[in-house]
Specification:
- The protein contains four helices and two strands.
- With about 90 residues, the protein is mainly α.
- It has a single domain, classed as Winged helix-like DNA-binding domain superfamily/Winged helix DNA-binding domain (Arc Repressor Mutant, subunit A).
- A hairpin with a 5-residue loop joins strand 1 and strand 2.
- Helix 1 packs across helix 4.
- The longest helix has 19 residues.
- The radius of gyration is 14 Å and the shape is globular.
Length: about 90
């Protein structure tokens, strides 16, 4: 099994959020992302800092994460780039 690179991990995290109606609590996201809690925290901090993800609080005072428009654009462009790579067998 090969190790995921940084861009793949970011894609996976954003895709998990997107597939769950653009709203997920941090703990399930950690579980689905298949990262250690420390690595997950590092990625989450970066995604929040770069405004790919935003954090909200629901009516029961629980944290949840959603994608920003920038996060959705990342997913679109990632798909375009990987499609290009696949088309040329790279």
């Amino acid at each position: 099994m090969r190790k995921r690179d940084r861009l793949e991990v970011i894609h996976d995290i954003l895709n998990i959020i997107s597939e769950r109606d653009n709203s997920i609590k941090p703990t399930p996201l950690l579980r689905f992302s298949n990262l250690s809690s420390q690595r997950f925290s590092e990625y989450l901090h970066e995604l929040l800092e770069k405004e790919l993800v935003r954090e909200g609080i629901d009516k029961k005072k629980r944290r949840y994460l959603t994608l920003t428009d920038k996060g959705f654009r990342y997913l679109e462009r990632y798909k375009t780039i990987t499609g290009f790579i696949d088309d040329f067998g790279l």
